[in-house]
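input
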Amino acid sequence: MKTLTTSKKLVKASWLIDNAIVAILYFVTCALVLQLPQSLLGAPIFPSAGLAVGALLARGRSRWVGVCLGAILNSFFVVKAPLFFAIIAGIVPTIGAVISTTLILRLNNTNYFLGYVKHFVAFILAITFGGTLIQALLGTLNVMLAGFVSPDIYWNVVWSWWVGDAIGVLVFSPLILVWWNRAISQIDISNRFSYQELFFTVISLGIVSYLALLESKPIEYLLLPPLLWSAFRLGVKTTTSLVTIIAMVSAISTAYKVGTFYKISQDTNSLLLLQLFMGVISITAIAVLALVTENNRTAKKLQEQVVLKDGAYTQLDQVNKNLEDMIEERTSELLEANREINSLNHQLTVENDRMSSELAVTRRLQQMILPRAKELNNIKELDIAGFMEPADEVGGDYYDVLQQNGRIKIGIGDVTGHGLESGVIMIMVQTAIRALLINGETDPVKFLSTVNQTIYKNIQRMNSDKNLSLILMDYHNHVLNLSGQHESVILIRADGGIEIIDTDALGFPIGLTDEISEFIFELNINLNLEDLVVLYTDGITEAENASKEIYGIGRLIQVISKSHQKSVNQIRELVIADVREFIGSSKVYDDITLVVLKRKI
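output
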């Protein structure tokens, strides 16, 4: 229960952080792009569209919240759109990113589209004719209704929007995917390369970029050879980063009227040439990445098959050379082994009989020391019903109800594991508690600390690694005193109010260390007439059905709450029946123990 709660908190925290990161990055990238000089039809590449699809592929589609929030903030604070249109402007790219991501996942059955060429082709088709097209149509309609563009250039804006978003997804989503997904970021298709290779690749890209994108030399496609070398040798992270850098430098230089792609200001053809260039280098480099991955995978499998084949031939030759000697040797060994097996079978039969007798004796002892119905009925202040069923022949659960000098001592515990060793420790705990109670020990801290010291020393002598959770309760004058660490205590008030008492801070596992006094604390609970208290072990809350679903404390509380006005025996039977119905034909993996008590006077 505690582990599941912690896991849910971590998942929720991760979701919040991821959405915050996506929202901030989306807002910042949009703002930066809009700061660049724009043509009449917008930017040639829109990185935020690629950021959105890459984030949803890397971290899950539930991160759409961050995309929507970032787009709304950009439209409201940067574009200065009215709030209604800003909200629509946030919804449109979110729909597009979700549609593109869903198509990619459906077509490839994986979020990593760089492993196969066919997966990359499916990725291109999904982003080109899926989400980017829809968000271009809807987004242009929104800005037209908001009064930012006139209806006569609607289709021109749709075209520019569509191509800009598609190029943005093509360039940026592979980068985000390989750098932000932990599992995928560990994939590297490159061979071992030297830093000299990386240095000369970056230098050559820098020189060609300077000449083509700043000095306007028509040699822009000479950028492809270094990028292809990176795809062959430097791996996915380096290649996607270099492609993104080249694409953005090209877009920025053109926006500032510099470089080979700039002809005249607001010239649509120059934007088309730039977009064509970015599409060509991205598709070519990433397609080579996927191809190299496939080739490496095939080569590795082929090499493994060759090694296996050579090993098989070598082994077969060796076997053929020594076959006659091996047959004679094996025959002699089999005869000797057969004699040993017959002897061992006889010993095993004797040992099994002895072990079965020991387990039967221990199980009988366990049942004998559990509280009898007559003892429970003699308690005037409380109605108490208990149940304990081991998963194996001998269980590791413990519960007891003892009455001494007007005080009622109630305990429940769970030894790690089950079987003979756990059952013996359970008997030790019962004996130690009864001895302390008879000797008049009433201090809960000293009581639980003494039990721990006794069990710890016995466990050390047994050379065992067992320990147990244990909670002890003293009832006197309508007050229930709790100490020790175990599963949460369920308290149903007579009026139906539900209280869940967490015991983690009230104690420490028994048998782990010799001194736990400083970890033991007390909690007093006033019990009113007909108030109901339920104790249980994790054999109930962590029981699994055939679908691997867990019974859980929520279902247990629901059953108890509906029947809290019934007698404790009826409540016990209803809970056990519901647990059995939930488990069905599945295997019971842990001991099942339940104690139900209710104040009656």
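quick obs: The chain is about 60% helix and 10% strand.
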